[in-house]
Amino acid sequence: MSQNRFEQVDERQEDAITLFLVRREGTASGFVTCPMTISGGRFTQDQIGTEGPAKDAFRSAVTLANDIKAAVVVVDPDNVWQAEWGTLYRET
């Protein structure tokens, strides 16, 4: 079975759900953003989720992506990504 692949980017993307992962005081956390323009009319403005545990933010991003049929990209400057979530790659 192949793993899911997620593109690593440096900033929020206007054509995808963006999962931001950070490490604060040794704790991995994250939050999700979703542009209104890709929501298929579900949102009337861009959405920015509340920061919480990284694993929960990842799950939230994937659930939202499945619901609205959108891609997920990842901003991860602190190397929070877990291999069990899939493959994180950077477009060259």
Would you kindly provide a written description of the structure presented here, covering whatever features stand out?
The chain is α/β, with parallel strands linked by helices. Strands 1, 2, 3, 4, 5, 6 and 7 form a seven-stranded mixed β-sheet that branches. Strand 2 and strand 3 form a beta hairpin. The chain is globular, with a radius of gyration of 13 Å.
Structural class: alpha/beta
SS elements, strand count:
7
The major β-sheet equals: 7 strands, mixed
Shape: globular
SSE string: EEEEEHEE
DSSP strand content: 25-35%
> What is the distance, rounded to the nearest whole angstrom, between the alpha carbons of the first and last residues?
25 Å
- Gyration radius over CA: 13 Å
Uncertain ranges: none
Q: What is the number of helical segments per DSSP (H or I, 4+ residues)? A: 1
Average the pLDDT over all residues and give the rounded result: 95
Helix content range: 10-25%
Tell me the layout of helices and strands.
Layout: E1 5-8, E2 17-24, E3 27-34, E4 47-48, E5 52-53, H1 54-68, E6 72-75, E7 87-89
Parallel strand pairs: 1-6, 1-7, 2-6
Antiparallel strand pairs: 2-3, 3-4, 3-5
Keywords:
92 residues, alpha/beta, 7-stranded mixed β-sheet, 16% helix
What is this entry, summarized?
By secondary structure, this protein is of the alpha/beta class. The chain has 1 helix and 7 strands; from the N terminus they run E-E-E-E-E-H-E-E.
